[in-house]
Amino acid sequence: xxxxxxxxDVAEVAELGAGTLSEHIGxxxxxxxxxxVTASMPVDPRTVQPAGVxxxxxxxxxxxxxxxxxxxLTVDPERFQVFGxxxxxxxxxxxxxxxRVHGTAAxxxxxxxxQVWEVKIVNDDGKLVCVSRxxxxxxxTAG
Length: 143
Prior knowledge:
The chain is an alpha+beta fold and about 140 residues long. It has helices at about 10-15, 20-25, 55-75, and strands at about 30, 35-40, 80-90, 100-110, 115-120, 130-140. It has three helices and six strands; from the N terminus they run ααββαββββ.
């Protein structure tokens, strides 16, 4: 059974990022499964640190984007919004220029007022680059 509110598809999810940070740094949504959402991001001049490898902050931006979109897809958007409350990340190996990194978010807990998501980011070879956990607040919309 799917955790999503409605039946999201990749094209619909991609529209959520139009004109945002995700679009600016090249995040592309690639899959919405029954309990996961996946996106990729280039390791290029927009996402590297001065040493020329993937910036940890870019990894965190990918992780929070995936968790937030995942959270958004689980709630009735007419009644609720989700907001990042806390995020942590362990950077395991560098993302190398010319590659893409691929993140997959899956929920660890889906509560009425908060959600916890785990995001694993791997390189093109499937090796772990970063693992992150993001806590989201679920907030009723005004009105």
